[in-house]
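Hey,
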Amino acid sequence: MQNITQQKVAFLDRDGTLIYEPADDFQVDRIDKLFILPGVIDGLQLLQKKGYILVIVSNQDGLGTKKFPRKSFDLPHNKMLRIFKDNGIEFEQVYICPHLPKDRCECRKPKIGLVKEFLETNTIDMKESLVYGNQESDRLFADMLGIRFFSVLTNGQCTLRNNLL
């Protein structure tokens, strides 16, 4: 990982914010369930043009269990990353918490355990950085980081463009 000198960072939730989050089981565990939400590609491209480094921070309940095998996650997740890359969108880091809420781990949002090393090894412009998400845990994550939060309705139109213009 390279040191970043006073960089603006956009911490982005994944499910329900960048991609469609199914209401039945909340897991994108098959390719046919993968759908990039309207406006996301334009919004991420705009963030990059404005000099933001993109970082995904996502809770994936039970990832790696029999109910949610890693392979079931990896196939659509890797396709999502390819779609973004094909549109010129690169993520500096992708952080995934696989734990359930009952596990009380240190890496599950809103805790900042997943990004602790990233924060310690990079110089981040906290005034300009932001969190973009659809859950209360995303707002609390932003509060714990001490940066701005932009909310989106779950599975709604990406409003990053409107917020950044």
